[in-house]
Write a structure and sequence with these properties.
Apc5_dom; mainly alpha; Apc5; TPR repeat; about 750 residues
Length: about 750
């Protein structure tokens, strides 16, 4: 079809297949698809008021604009679209096109002659200045300019277009009749759909200016708001290459090519397309027309700024990023462009955010953005400040007050994207502080919100980073509570919403790997957990190293785990990653008491507790107190361990993961049993009964996350307690369950008292 388009119309701007000027100088031309649309318009005008219902006519009117502005589509797809709106009219259009294609050339000539009658009379069917009227006039004018040979080629193309559409309709009918097996029918349908899409992409020839602009704006909107509904990266690039073949100086096509290459993380092609975009923007003079003499310089400074943003996006060549940013700042200062300078200031913060004094730069950026009336930049600056203060350990009420102020800006200026970011930020802050219930509420609030931004074609603005973050938090929160089926459903939706080649796919990939790792560790499948470490490391090196140390520790490779944790501790302290520093300290302490050195573990635990209190990480503080209580139990002071547990257990039971709840209740039972050693017989029996109740609760928690290794420890402990109380039947039941689990699972080789 592309070859038909190229040979059908004489293009004075093309010599030997090379375009020498803007092909969009020709406003419109006739194609077989546009003849089909003209037939539809003609049939609509001929159909009486009573023949088509009001709802059908309304659907047809809504269908017309995308048909007039969009790229050419196959005849079978056009029939399908018309049939969905008005089946009766679809049949009339099909018969009319068939008569024209199977008739003679004079039938097409007569059809175009009759089109002019639409404008005649005192009350014409179509107004000349309406959208449909302008389209009809363009088509009539373009057809009248064709030579006889070109008219003949157009008629031949129409016949071919009709035959392809009929062939596709017959194939669909045959497939529905002959398919018996449901699975095979689904597979064949999917293959057919793919071939049709590829055919549509390959058959699109040179687009008119309106078609090209509509196609580019539609695809750009889909890439921003709902990437899954946009063309695949390969198909979109093929379309853009076809568009640029006829008009290499079309700047917007180069920019969409840049966005498309970002989807597949192609640094070289992204840079190439971005540079071409700004080159063409300067050459076409579009900037100078709208901005006077400033246009040329404005393009140059924003080109440098976009290049810096591109390098920052790929965390790639810091020196080139710095140089591009310096170039943008220099040109902006020469031109006295305060808006561009504010953007540069924001990127300077991103470049140097690891420095201790970066918050000064950020505060200055927020003040300047407010002064120059840039609410978007001001709000982004406040969001970044809140994030920085959260990591610095500021209280939650101050952070939420700051976010409330930024929310006022969002609602005032209808900045829907920043409203989503703000809610996702609140979700992350509540999780950082260990308030899972509040985090869950914020995540669900974001997912139930309707976007403020008007998006065409029923597209929701839900493939942004904030939605990905909220969904990942939701999956992790469900997995922590043992709801693995719900977590799988959330991850399945994430995979559909954010395909593997999309920008934010790494978020759900890491989340999925972490959940699988935790499940494997709970099941005692350390070999499977070890195989997942590689994938986690590829996505997050620090998290991967920590998980590797956890696996080594579980496999009793203490010296290797200790070396890895010490290296990780030094690295995280340099990066000021407080959350990971505390987790590493807790793991090192566990190594010491599992090596029968609980006294060495105490300084580590106290350091972790001090950090978690300083940075207000409530949940990590509770977990540290839990570890301190266990250390005191090992050291033989269970009464103090019990008093410590009463401080820590409430936040764990309120907001903790199911596994941590089980560990807490198991530890309470151990402390109760150890404390009961000095009691008299009636009081001791009462204490042991209370311990058994707590063990039952711990066992229920462990069963929810399918942690068989810990269930084995619990039933062993219960069997011993029942034996002490003389309850033979209960003891035997627990002993039988322990034996079954012990045969199924490998022994961890660590005494029960040294295993939290």
């Amino acid at each position: 079809m592309a070859s038909v388009h190229e040979s059908l119309y004489f293009n004075p701007m093309m010599t030997n297949g090379v375009v020498h000027a803007n092909v969009f100088g020709i406003k419109d031309w006739v194609t077989p698809y546009k003849i089909a649309v003209l037939v539809l318009l003609n049939e609509m005008s001929r159909t009486g008021e009573g023949a088509v219902s009001l709802m059908e006519r309304r659907r047809l009117n809504q269908l017309l604009l995308p048909l007039l502005q969009g790229p050419d589509i196959t005849l079978s797809k056009l029939y399908k679209l018309i049939e969905e709106s008005c089946p009766q009219l679809a049949n009339s259009v099909q018969i009319r096109i068939k008569l024209m294609a199977e008739g003679e050339l004079k039938d097409m000539e007569q059809f175009f002659d009759d089109l002019s009658d639409s404008f005649s009379g005192t009350e014409p069917e179509v107004h000349k200045t309406s959208v449909v009227g302008l389209f009809l006039r363009h088509m009539i004018l373009a057809y009248s300019k064709l030579s006889f040979s070109q008219v003949f080629k157009l008629y031949t193309a129409l016949q071919q277009y009709f035959q392809n559409g009929e062939k596709k309709t017959v194939e669909d009918a045959d497939m529905e009749l002959t398919s018996r097996d449901e699975g095979e029918r689904k597979m064949e349908k999917e293959e057919l759909d793919v071939s049709v899409r590829e055919e549509e992409v390959s058959c699109s020839g040179p687009l008119s200016q309106k078609q090209a602009e509509f196609f580019l704006s539609q695809q750009a909107s889909l890439l921003k708001n709902d990437e899954t509904k946009a063309l695949t990266p390969a198909s979109l690039q093929k379309e853009l290459n076809n568009l640029l073949k006829f008009n290499p100086d079309f700047a917007e096509a180069h920019y969409l090519s840049y966005l498309n290459n970002l989807r597949v993380q192609d640094v070289f092609s992204s840079t190439h397309s971005l540079l071409h975009y700004f080159d063409r923007l300067i050459l076409t003079g579009a900037e100078s027309k709208s901005n006077g003499e400033e246009g040329y310089g404005r393009s140059l400074r924003y080109a440098a700024l976009n290049l810096a943003a591109l390098h920052c996006r790929f965390v790639y060549r810091p020196l080139s990023l710095q140089l591009a940013l310096q170039e943008a700042i220099r040109i902006a200062q020469e031109s006295n462009d305060h808006v561009c300078l504010q953007h540069c200031l924001s990127w300077l913060y991103v470049l140097g955010q690891k420095r201790s004094d970066s918050y000064v730069l950020l505060e200055h950026s927020v003040k300047k953005a407010v002064h120059f009336g840039l609410p978007y930049l001001a709000s982004l600056g406040i969001q970044s400040l809140v994030q920085q203060r959260a990591f610095a350990g500021k209280t939650a009420n101050k952070l939420m007050d700051a976010l409330k102020d930024s929310d006022l800006l969002h609602w005032k200026h209808s900045l829907s994207e920043l409203i989503d970011i703000s809610i996702a930020q609140k979700t992350a802050i509540w999780r950082l502080y260990g308030r899972s219930t509040m985090a869950l509420q914020q995540a669900q609030m974001l997912l139930s919100m309707n976007s403020l931004e008007a998006v065409n074609a029923g597209v929701q603005q839900n493939n942004t980073e904030s939605f990905a973050v909220a969904l990942c938090h939701l999956a992790e929160l469900h997995a922590e509570q043992g709801c693995f089926a719900a977590a799988s459903e959330v991850l399945k939706h994430l995979k559909e919403r954010f395909p593997p080649n999309s920008q934010h796919a790494q978020l759900w990939m890491l989340c999925d790997q972490k959940i699988q790792f935790d499940r494997a560790m709970n099941d005692g499948k350390y070999h499977l957990a070890d195989s997942l470490v590689t994938g986690i490391t590829a996505l997050n090196s620090i998290e991967g190293v920590y998980r590797k140390a956890v696996v080594l520790q579980a496999q009793n490779q203490m010296s290797e785990a200790h070396k890895l944790l010490q290296k990780l501790l030094v690295h995280c302290q340099k990066l000021k990653n407080t959350e990971m520093v505390i987790s590493v300290l807790l793991s090192v302490a566990e190594l010491y008491w599992r090596s029968s050195s609980p006294t060495i573990a105490l300084p580590m635990l106290l350091q972790a507790l001090a950090l978690s209190k300083e940075y207000r990480l409530q949940y990590l503080a509770s977990e540290t107190v839990l570890n301190l209580a266990f250390a005191q139990l090992i050291l033989g002071i269970p009464e103090q361990a019990l008093s410590l547990l009463h401080m820590a257990i409430e936040p764990i039971l309120a907001d903790g993961a199911i596994l941590d709840k089980g560990r807490a209740m198991f530890l309470v039972a151990k402390c109760q049993v150890a404390s009961a050693a000095s009691y008299d017989q009636p009081k001791k029996a009462e204490a042991l009964e209370a311990a058994i109740e707590n063990l039952n609760e711990a066992k229920n928690y462990f069963a929810k996350v399918d942690c068989k290794e810990r269930i084995r420890d619990v039933v062993y402990f219960q069997a011993r307690l029942y034996h002490t109380l003389g309850k033979t039947q209960e003891r035997n039941r627990c002993a039988m369950l322990f034996r079954q689990l012990h045969q199924e699972l490998p022994s961890h080789g660590v005494p029960l008292i040294n295993h939290l």
